[in-house]
Specification:
This protein has 352 residues and is mostly helical. It has 10 helices and no strands.
Length: 352
Amino acid sequence: MLSRRIIRKWLSIFILGIIILLFIYLLYLLFPFYSQLVAVVIKILTPFLIAAFIAYLLHPMIEKIHQYHIPRSLVIVGVYVLFFGGSAIAMYYGFPALLKQIKEIQQALPNFFDTYRYTVYQLYESTAFLPESFHDQMDLFFNHIEKSIEQWVAQLLNRATKIMDILMVVAVIPVLVFYMLNDFDLIKSSLIKLFPKRYRTRVNRVLPAVDKGLGSYIRGQLLVCFFVGVISYFILLFIKMKYPLVLAVIMSVTNIIPYFGPIIGALPAVIIAFTISTKQVIYVVLGVVIVQIIEGNLLSPYIVGKSVHLHPVFIIFILLVGGEVAGLIGMIVSIPLVTIIKVIIFQSKNDD
């Protein structure tokens, strides 16, 4: 038999969840009226959020090294210099090359579309026996794809060329990260104090569990994505594929999405290879398969492990829900969010 206290508790959680969902829906309906304000707030908060994320990733490394009786300030400076020094070198050599390849893709779009139109024409001839309505739907489908690709490349190029905004964020983030690393425990305790007193003890118990599950997953997944990007880049270079840096970055970023990420990341490479030759398509597909074999059998098991502890079927369901709600961003953040909720619920059951 469930006690009245437990019934009241879960009933309160259920009602609170409904209120939150209704509030989110209301915000969604009113979004056009305050979209500009949201854009300004996001722009201001972006460097703080990025800095907090970097500090969160680096803090365990600092604590680990500090255990060897090395002064904490010296460890912070060392890790700080290594991380931002390596990032600066990567950006110095990588960003201009990335921007150049994006511009080359934009300039080559007409040739890509000519190739696709020729392929579509051949497809029309081979499906001439089908009803005209089928061909009309094909026209709409391919026109939609062409417009989507053009818009995506144009948006990517426009964002990449906003040098002043990028420089401002890049200049502020290292300063914020240093102060956050230096005062990490103080910031953590200050955030805990924002909760009512009766919940602080529970928050102190939940946070280590969240960090153990979520932190190890995020750090491991990012490390796997980095290696996937590097391996993909050298394989694309080896098979003499066009735009290897852009395609490797796409494969690296999308690989953070379980199951669906490798497929999404491979599509641009396969599409571009299709405009070159059938032989190049085979090379690209083989290269993607090799990368995924390495990632699935060597990188993920040893780096990420099973830190999430969720059944694959449930993970796929959550990814589909996240993709439906917020697209690619929803698929990226859905698993970490579910992991946090799972830890909080599990910890609450233990407390009871």
